[in-house]
Each structure stands twice: as structure tokens, then as C-alpha cells.
Amino acid sequence: MTDDLYHELALTLLPGIGPQLTRQLMSYGSSAKNVFLLPPGKLRRIPGVGDATVKIITGAARGQALAQAETSLRKAEKEGVEILFYTNKRFPTRLKLIPDAPALLYYQGPADLNAPKVLALVGTRQATEYGREQTERILKGVLPHNPLIVSGLAYGIDIMAHRAALQEGLLTVGVMATGLDVIYPAAHRKTAEKMRETGGLLTEFAFGTQPDRYNFPQRNRIIAGLADGTVVVEAAAKGGALITAELALSYDRDVLAVPGPLGAPSSEGCNALIKSNKAALYQEPRDLEQLLNWDAALFQTGKFQPPPSYSAADFSAEEFALITVLAAAAGREEHMDNLAWKAQQPIHAVAALLLTLEFRGVVRALPGKRFGLV
Questions:
Q1: Residue 6 to residue 33: CA distance in whole angstroms
Q2: Which of 205, 207, 341, 360 is deepest in the core (most CB within 10 A)?
């Protein structure tokens, strides 16, 4: 149990202190422990902090949160659960980029949440045989890319996606609307246990949290934020899958939808997404590859690998993706815009990453915003 994580967890357990206010407090306190040590007068000077918040941080709720944090940390250590505060290097970088990202995650499993390629599959709970077939077909189609598959462990398309990923040998992570110790629905426990061993289970909710209906929309934003793109396989005119698609769009992530038979209730949502140009049409793997800029040749094993002097362990996932793209250029320079496109990263983030890599002596900057490996 580290002192930092103890106070970080306690901060997120305070009632009424959401992710955005947590970040605001951290920016002024520099650490969670310091936030708890700030006197009321200094707390009130922080934008967004009023008397009610001061009372929460300094009153009885403080002691309760600290006690709960200690209990949760001991439980996490006993059960092999990783608790990731947003300042942790292992916190999913893609998720950090969304405006309403959680401040803390509970994670159990060996899969890398910062995998080079992450794909979300979502859909209706009332899935049909057509939906099952299309889900399996999609996962077979993306096998050459070896993406991490993300979904919500729910009935219907979600659990079909997880099971098909396991069948194909792909790592898959289930984002839960409960605590990690509350598998919902219970019928999916066996699949969840397999995922825990080979992929992972992820949630922002504390141990013991039950499946409250308000938790599911919150869960959906994590699914959308974790992935490079989201595929809606089947969706009714209204439902959680469409919420996830809308969230993905609001985060500037790509959305694809599988068309369904006209008049089929389970495909009304997908067809509407395509008709309104909110989702690209998915017919074959190439549709997804083109939209997400997944160049299969670039990431094939044994081809276009970074030079031996560069190890993934020495860089963040985003930095290593840029190194991989530059290595594939085989001595040629790449324009920064092309690097961002090929690495599937925001241009502003790529600019900062390239500057860091230049300082480390890994890349060289050339006129015209072009870059190459040293």
C-alpha cells in the first residue's frame, strides 16, 4: 500500500467529488495527500470549491473516505486488482483524452489497456442470430491486426463479442457498471473469469457497487473512450449501444455500423446511424482498416519492426507507435501530419511526443515539419 495511492483513492471516494473536481484539486494541491492537508481557507480559493466541498474534504466524510480507501487497498492487494489513478503511467492514454474521463480505475487482468490497436464492439441486448454471425465475422476479419477488444459484458452483442474474441485468441476487456467483485449479469461469470485470466475486467466503481441503472451510461463513455473506433453490430432505435456511438462521436472517435434488414427492430439503430452519416458502413474488414488507418503491413510480425536499439519497455505506447511508423519509412522522413494519421493520434499530441523524442535523441526534426529516426 503506497501513501500516494491511499490518498488518491480516498479523494475519489469523497461524496460529491467527481473526476473534474478531483483534477482541479490535484492541480492546486499537487498531490492528493496535500489536498487533505489544505486548510479551509486555501481550499476555498480553488475555483469550483465552495463551502459544501470544503465541509466534505475536512469533515466526517474525510475520515470515512480514508477508512474505505484503506479497506479497498487491502482487498485489491489480496485479489490482484490494480488501482490506476489518472496520473499513473498505466492509466489508458486514450481515455485521458476525453473531457469526462474517470479519475481512477479498478483493473484486473494481464491485457495492456494501451495496446497499439483497440476496438470496441457494442450492440443490443436482444441480439439475433444475424448479430452473432456478424460479430464473429468482424472478429475473424480483424485477426491480422491483433487488436484489444472492448465491450460491456452485457447480454446480447457485448457478451457475443467477448466470447468470439476468446474463441479467436484475441485479448478482450469487459468494462463493468459495477464493482469488480460484482459480476453482472451473473450468467456471464464463467466468461468473465476467463477474461480476467487472459484479458481483463475494468471499472471506475468501487468494490461492492451494485448494477444501478445510472451506472450504465457512465460505463459506456469508458468503452467509447478506450477504443480507436466503435463498431455497432445491432442496435434498436433507442438503447445503450447508440449512447456509446454518440459518445464516441463526441470524442472524435470513428464509428462504424453493420447494416441490417429493413424493418428489423434490432437493426433500426444501425441503419439510422448510417443514414444520418454518423457511422460508416461496415461490410468487410477493409472498411474498418481504411477508416481507422490500420495498415496491416505496418504492424505485421517480423516486418517494419523498430530498430533493435528501441524497446517498447523504454517508451510510452504512443511514443513507440511513432517510432514504429518512422521505422517503417525505411530511412525516409515522415511529415508530422502523416505520422499522426498513421499512428492514429491527435496532431497536438504527436507534436508534443515528437519534441520529447527529439530531446531523447530518438528522432531528428527536419524543415517542413518532417521527422526521421536518428
A1: 9
A2: 205
**Rounded to the nearest 10 degrees, how much is the dihedral formed by the CA atoms of 356, 361, 365, 371?**
-90
271 and 366 inside one domain: no
Please give the share of the chain, as a percent, with pLDDT higher than 70: 95
Structural domain boundaries, residue 38:
3-78
Task: Based on the fold, state whether residues 349 and 247 are members of the same structural domain.
Answer: no
Which of 84-88, 127-131, 182-186, 322-326 has the weakest average pLDDT?
322-326
Q: How many domains does one find in the chain?
A: 3
Question: Distance between CA 211 and CA 240 in Å, rounded?
Answer: 14
Give CA–CA dist 333/366, Å, rounded: 8
Once rounded to an integer, what is the mean pLDDT over residues 185-212? 97
User: Residues 269, 241: contact at Cβ < 8 Å?
Assistant: yes
Element spanning 28, H or E: helix 19-29
pTM exceeds 0.70: yes
Q: Residue 272's domain is classified under what CATH number?
A: 3.40.50.450
Contact 233, 121 (CB under 8 A): yes
Q: In this structure, what are the phi and psi dihedrals at residue 35, rounded to the nearest 5 degrees?
A: -60, -45
The answer on 226 and 269 residing in a single domain is: yes
- The one-character DSSP state at 230 is E
Q: What pLDDT shows up at residue 298?
A: 46
Both 150 and 203 in one domain: the answer is: yes
Q: Tens of pLDDT along 209-238? A: 999 999 999 999 999 999 999 999 999 999
